[in-house]
# Entry
Amino acid sequence: MTHMPVFFTILPYLLLALSIGLFLGLFTDISRKMQGLRIRIGEADARAQENSTDFTNSLAAVRLRLEEFEAEPPASPCAAVESVGINQAIRSKVLKMSRLGQSAEAISQNLRLPKGEVELLVKVHKVVMQPYQIAATEAAGSGS
# Structure
C-alpha cells in the first residue's frame, strides 16, 4: 500500500506534464497551420500581383489602340455603304431584270443575292421613280 501514496503524490505532476505536452502539441500544430496559411497567402498575393500586371498591360494596350483609332481620319460614310452593299452594276442588273418581268426569286437565284435585298431594291426604285413617272404621264396627257 505504500505505492498508492507515492502515486497520488506525483499525480499532479504527471497531469501537469501531460497538459504541457498536450498544449505543446496543439501549439506546434497551430504553428504549422499558420505557416501553411502564410505560404498560401504569399502565393495568392503573387498571383494577384501578376494578374494586376497583366490587367495593367492590357489596359495600356487598349488605351494605345484607342489613341490610334482616334488619330485615324474618319472614313467616308459613302465608302462604308458602298463596300457593304451591292455595287452599281448589280443594282442595274436587278432593275433591268425586274423591268423585264422576272420575279424577285428568279433574280435572287440568278445573281446570287438574298431575295429580301432584291425586293427592297425594286421597291425603293419604284418609290424613287414614282414622281418622275407621274410627271411623264402628265406630260404625255397634256401633250396630246
Remarks:
- The mean pLDDT is 86.
- The longest helix spans residues 3-71.
- The chain has two domains: 1-72, 77-143.
